[in-house]
């Protein structure tokens, strides 16, 4: 390959093969139609790739069904983490409720030429692909309600067995079968038991809880934060907190939710606290406070905005279609606000969330919903997807157009902005 260096005007040769070798280092490259473990014939279709390895579609010659084979890189770190994932998956499904709580089931695991391999049922597509197929216009509250209830039910189950997923994001929630709204939580490669926390640098940045950003001790509550971010993104089509780095991520959160409470800042890792926070200046004679400010202020054009404004496009979505009334939005915004409580000790639990009016089809007590018409985060109106029905035709179900497009647009690699 020949490229132009704009700094010196000279033409130079770049060996792209070295870049490819670096990307594929540690990956297993199967031969065409290679059979793994005596039964899984690789079809050649790549379903996903990441730092851990890759996921390939295969045909199980024993059960005559399609499967997804997750082939881990042959590096010791990833092999150890794969063993942890295997143990957690096995542990979850020893519970009588494992199959009923929207968690993907591992059907087999083995080692092939030094690579740990995990086998899963072949699912449809993930929620990021659903968003992508809608051209990032977002999906309707009716469908979000179905997705959200299942996700929260899975969190309730995980909390009951002390498992923290640690990497919930749209790519790790898949539609179990086309044209149905049943979902499965996948990818427990970063997961841990709540009493055996090993890693401190976890979660993809856009969905990373404040306690992780601040270097605090963490619990199952970090997964609930991720769910709050996911639900808003599913509806708006855009990540809620799209920070470029740690300080920018904090600024994005403060811009929407307000300043991190002082008692939370004081629980932060001392180096993080000193680098990113400063005590508010005290006026002479005033009682000292525990309030803090960010050392790096938000840019002047980053005006504060509310969750209500973000979710309703400044009120433009209100009453545009069924299930998007003021009361519907009041329920939705109240739920995600409780999920996005900065203080993890006050964040809503899965059991409490399942009793929320958003899932009970009843109005909030003493609350009247409404759109904040002062601000909008996007310039144009959008058409939301509504629901996915198991037996309707495309003529009856407008969402099948989205589900068909999602199947045609499988992503080979995760979106680059999701990690780090």
TrEMBL record:
Domain Protein kinase: 41-359
Domain of life: Eukaryota
Region annotation Disordered: where it falls in the sequence: 360-420
Keywords from the named record: ATP-binding, Kinase, Nucleotide-binding, Serine/threonine-protein kinase, Transferase
Gene3D superfamilies, sorted: Phosphorylase Kinase, domain 1, Transferase(Phosphotransferase) domain 1
GO MF entry, a single one: protein serine/threonine kinase activity
Alphabetized SUPFAM superfamilies for the sequence: Protein kinase-like (PK-like)
Binding site residues for ATP: 70
Family, similarity comment: Belongs to the protein kinase superfamily.
Name of the protein in question: CMGC/DYRK/DYRK1 protein kinase, variant 1
């Amino acid at each position: 390959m020949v490229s132009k260096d704009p700094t010196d005007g000279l033409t130079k040769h770049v060996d792209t093969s070295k870049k490819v070798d670096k990307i594929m280092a540690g990956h297993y490259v199967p031969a065409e139609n290679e059979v793994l473990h005596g039964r899984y014939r690789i079809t050649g279709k790549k379903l996903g790739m990441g730092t851990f390895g890759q996921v390939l579609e295969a045909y199980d010659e024993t059960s005559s069904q399609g499967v997804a084979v997750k082939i881990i890189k042959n590096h010791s770190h990833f092999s150890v983490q794969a063993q942890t994932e295997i143990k957690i998956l096995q542990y979850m499904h020893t519970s009588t409720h494992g199959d009923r709580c929207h968690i993907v089931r591992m059907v087999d695991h083995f080692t092939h030429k030094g690579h740990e391999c995990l086998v899963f049922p072949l699912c449809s597509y993930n929620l990021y692909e659903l968003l992508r197929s809608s051209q990032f216009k977002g999906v309707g509250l009716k469908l979000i309600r179905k997705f959200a209830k299942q996700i929260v039910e899975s969190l309730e189950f995980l909390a009951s067995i002390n498992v923290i997923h640690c990497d919930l994001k749209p790519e790790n929630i898949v539609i179990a079968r086309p044209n149905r709204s049943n979902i499965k939580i996948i990818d427990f490669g970063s997961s841990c038991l709540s009493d055996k926390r090993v890693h401190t640098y976890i979660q993809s940045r856009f969905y990373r809880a404040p306690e992780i950003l601040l270097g605090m001790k963490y619990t199952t509550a970090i997964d609930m934060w991720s769910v709050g971010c996911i639900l808003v993104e599913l509806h708006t089509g855009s990540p809620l907190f799209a920070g470029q780095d740690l300080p920018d991520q904090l600024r994005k959160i403060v811009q929407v939710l307000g300043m991190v409470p002082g008692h939370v800042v004081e629980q932060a890792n001392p180096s993080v606290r000193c680098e990113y926070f400063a005590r508010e200046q005290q006026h002479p004679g005033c009682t000292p406070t525990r309030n803090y400010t960010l050392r790096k202020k938000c840019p002047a054009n980053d005006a504060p905005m509310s969750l209500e404004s973000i979710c309703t496009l400044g009120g433009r979505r209100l009453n545009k279609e069924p299930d998007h009334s003021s009361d519907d939005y009041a329920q939705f915004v109240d739920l995600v606000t409780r999920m996005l409580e900065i203080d993890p000790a006050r964040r809503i639990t899965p059991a409490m969330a399942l009793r929320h009016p958003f899932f009970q089809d009843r109005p909030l007590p003493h609350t009247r919903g409404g759109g904040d018409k002062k601000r909008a985060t996007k310039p144009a109106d959008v058409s939301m997807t509504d629901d996915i029905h198991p037996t309707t035709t495309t003529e009856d179900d407008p969402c099948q157009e989205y589900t068909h497009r999602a199947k045609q647009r499988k992503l080979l690699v995760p979106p680059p902005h999701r990690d780090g």
